[in-house]
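Q&A log
Question type: sequence-to-structure
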Amino acid sequence: MAEALVHRAATWGEIALAALTFLLLFFVTAPYGRHERAGFGKAIPQRAAWMLMEAPAVVVFIGIYVFGAHAWEAAPLCLLGLWQLHYLQRTLVFPFRLRDPKKTTPLVVVLAAIGFNVLNAYVNARWISHFGRYTLGDFQSFCFVSGTALFVAGFALNIHADGVLLRLRSPGVTGYKVPHGGLFEYVSSPNYLAEIIEWLGWALLTWSLSGLAFALYVIGNLVPRALTHHRWYQQKFPDYPKERKAILPFVL
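Response status: OK
Response body:
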């Protein structure tokens, strides 16, 4: 019972962090990627940064998951598989597709991301393997079927959007270009839209406050950044498509 209270407090803490992050990012642009700038201390190579930031979502998640009361049941194992599908790609595949070896990420950003991913790994791994209760019969429910469809669609769209961005640069070429194709015809940050879709799917398929907490954090983190990206594109490229929105087609 004591740990259940700790887990619930951690979950609500993540929701509070989502709200705080959402507000803060309207005043301070996170200094990585195209928005990298001096004044944030020591920085490390971008590839290493991505691997370090995302690794807790793989390693810590598994380390917490295996001690759950229901960890070796079929249904939680399927949920574990979906989670690892995303984070193994982000940790071990995506960083090696990056083409600019000179880019760096401030260490303070890396440490903040590691801290969040440890918290989020605890909140979600402990839920699906211990506090939550799932059976294979649940997989026939509307929430699971529709949530899984959203998760897989978001994952696929994310991979496609990353590919479009990466193909804009030939090996050894730096600088930015206007991306086209797929959801880029409608929004400036389809990779962020895809990630939001993916984790809303997770919240739906797990039907849990833990899953909702993560989805809210993703929204709080990525919506302000997408708006910043959109303004950056408009300022850098005078002929940037005027009909293109920031993150939500035809709306925002």
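Response note: The radius of gyration is 19 Å.
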